[in-house]
Amino acid sequence: MHVRFWGVRGSISTPKATHLGIGGNTACVEVRLSDGSTCILDLGTGARELGRMLVKEAGGGPLDLHVFLSHFHWDHIQAVPFFAPLFEEENRVTFYGSDTEGEPMDLLTEQMRVPFFPFSFNELAAETRQIILQENVSVTVGGLTVTPFPVHHTQFVFGYKLEAGGASVVYCTDYEHGNERLDLLLGVVASGADLLICDAQYTPEEYAHCVGWGHSTWERAAQLAAEAKVKRLALFHHDPAHNDEQLSEILSAAQAVFPNTVLATEGATIVC
Predict the structure, then answer these.
(1) Cut 0.85: pTM above it
(2) Where are the domains of the chain?
(3) CATH class of the domain comprising 2-271
(4) d(CA 49, CA 26)
């Protein structure tokens, strides 16, 4: 599996020079197999460049894309109206997600209605469809098996475990520790994973003032990685206030707890 980060920031994009070494776009991750099977995790602002690349790569041919949405906060869906494959009628885009907060297509349509956007979701040229996911019930996309699991947040969130060829990647954005049942579930899901992509928005000191906001700390992410015996941890959903220098310090602190830790960095690829 090739895991490429197109957006790694949380809450809001940060197009500042001091932040661009790690990346200023919000959540979007591409997971691709050598046979071409591809899943897209969230459509934050990073998805704009991913969409442009996919259209160029297709060279005018049709695209059949599979987008797994963790939830519907703006930083995870903001690039939907700017996702180039949606503008070509030969393409098909399937959205996967929970209907706990409403059906995915209804929610995507709502964010684009006037006066929030100048044209509607229904005017996009591509064929769009939705698949409602159930907790712990897997779906397949080519050679990829994707299993959704609930994550503790301020609203309903799905994490995703992706498996292929004996390798596994766990995507756990917008996660706040402290819910015993869901913490235990995450530990089971992440056990032995080749890569854990985990919310690490806050330092422990910051978290003391942000309890209940739906995000975790680098410390908890590192502890989870160690407890679950994952092979590699990628700290994700970086706080918009954290510049590259601060994130470098966070990385060093996390590596002291779990040595095989990296920062999820825009444009970087991890092979599992």
Answers:
(1) yes
(2) 2-271
(3) alpha beta
(4) 12
